[in-house]
From TrEMBL:
<dbReference type="GO" id="GO:0005549">
    <property type="term" value="F:odorant binding"/>
</dbReference>
<feature type="transmembrane region" description="Helical">
    <location>
        <begin position="98"/>
        <end position="120"/>
    </location>
</feature>
<keyword id="KW-1003">Cell membrane</keyword>
<protein>
    <recommendedName>
        <fullName>Olfactory receptor</fullName>
    </recommendedName>
</protein>
<comment type="similarity">
    <text>Belongs to the G-protein coupled receptor 1 family.</text>
</comment>
<keyword id="KW-0297">G-protein coupled receptor</keyword>
<keyword id="KW-0812">Transmembrane</keyword>
<dbReference type="InterPro" id="IPR000276">
    <property type="entry name" value="GPCR_Rhodpsn"/>
</dbReference>
<keyword id="KW-0807">Transducer</keyword>
<feature type="transmembrane region" description="Helical">
    <location>
        <begin position="196"/>
        <end position="218"/>
    </location>
</feature>
<feature type="domain" description="G-protein coupled receptors family 1 profile">
    <location>
        <begin position="41"/>
        <end position="290"/>
    </location>
</feature>
<keyword id="KW-0472">Membrane</keyword>
<feature type="transmembrane region" description="Helical">
    <location>
        <begin position="59"/>
        <end position="78"/>
    </location>
</feature>
<keyword id="KW-0552">Olfaction</keyword>
<dbReference type="GO" id="GO:0004984">
    <property type="term" value="F:olfactory receptor activity"/>
</dbReference>
<feature type="transmembrane region" description="Helical">
    <location>
        <begin position="141"/>
        <end position="164"/>
    </location>
</feature>
<feature type="transmembrane region" description="Helical">
    <location>
        <begin position="239"/>
        <end position="261"/>
    </location>
</feature>
Length: 315
């Protein structure tokens, strides 16, 4: 099929997974189970927080946005990935690819902004406990959550507006899913503005947001070690360790993925692996980490299962 035909019909060619007949079912099973685990674990975390009024506190209301972003990222990636495994098709519509890329970036950006808001909440709670109730009011929490979504939608929306204005002259993908760098590689025009804005976004997420997160947790650790209360110190350290584990997991995978696009000689297979890890591991581990490590959520989840789910099973 000619390149002109691909451009006219807005069809893109995805890379071939080169799966043998015997490997199709295990790959399909792995992808399906991964998506089901991500979907149900994050959904359970959302329902546990929403349905328990005792968890309607600033920390948990901000945390609620994390599984929502995880579901957005997983739902943008896995259905297309599973379809490609089952059908063996290497083509996709350009509009479908853009939509997938947009929601994957919303997941990544929104997660970073949510973790920043969570770090701010913990900083006020531990370093300024007497001011916590007066600072973290319901109105202020709603402003933080609104800020998370507005920042994500505006920054990512502008990223794709800049992308969609450019003409395409290529149609073959090297990545296993759609994202902004992959779509930008199809462009046959000057991408200087896009590159500058992309670096600006990296600066916001990797320098400013992550700098704020690291600074707040450093202050929290200092405050914890200065505290004389053993129980307070242990609880604060446990909460911070949970948040830091999620942050470091996402940050390491995300940073390696970003760097892989900037290094021309890096293996495409390694780039695919890093990108897929970013979309699989954080959404899988986040609800498990918060569900198992956060005592209040764990207790409410067990209570929810015993009182809401098991009675129906008795019938």
């Amino acid at each position: 099929m000619s390149e002109a035909l691909y451009n006219t019909s807005s069809v893109l060619v995805l890379p071939d997974f080169n799966l043998s007949t015997e490997a199709v079912f295990p790959a399909f099973l792995f992808a399906s189970l991964s998506y089901m685990i991500i979907f149900f674990c994050n959904l359970i975390l959302i329902l546990t927080i929403v349905l328990n009024k005792s968890l309607h506190h600033p920390m948990y209301l901000i945390l609620l946005n994390l599984p929502i972003h995880d579901l957005i990222g997983a739902s943008a990636f896995f259905p297309q990935f599973i379809k490609q495994i089952l059908t063996g098709s290497r083509t996709t519509q350009y509009s479908t690819c853009v939509a997938q890329a947009f929601f994957i970036h919303i997941y990544a950006g929104g997660t970073v902004f949510t973790l920043t808001a969570m770090a701010y909440d913990r900083y006020i709670a531990i370093c300024c406990p007497l001011k916590y109730n007066s600072v973290m009011t319901n109105a202020h929490v709603m402003r933080l959550i609104t800020g998370v979504w507005v920042c994500s939608l505006v920054t990512i929306g502008l990223l794709f507006i800049l992308l969609l204005r450019l003409p395409r002259c290529r149609y073959e993908f090297t990545n296993s899913y759609c994202d902004n760098p992959s779509l930008l590689s199809l462009v046959c025009a000057d991408t200087t503005i896009n590159n500058i804005y992309g670096l600006f976004l990296v600066a916001i997420t990797q320098v400013i947001a992550n700098g704020m997160i690291l600074y707040t947790y450093l202050q929290i650790l200092v405050a914890c070690f200065r505290s004389k209360g053993t129980d307070t110190k242990a609880k604060a350290l446990q909460t911070c360790a949970t948040h830091l584990a999620v942050f470091l997991l996402l940050e390491c995978l995300g940073l390696f993925t970003i760097i892989s696009y900037r290094i021309q000689g890096i293996s495409p297979q390694l780039r695919k692996f890093l990108g897929m890890c970013t979309l699989i591991f954080p959404p899988t581990l986040n609800p498990i980490i918060y569900g198992l490590r956060t005592q209040e959520i764990r207790e409410k989840f067990v209570h929810f299962i015993k009182n809401k789910i098991l009675p129906f099973g008795a019938f």
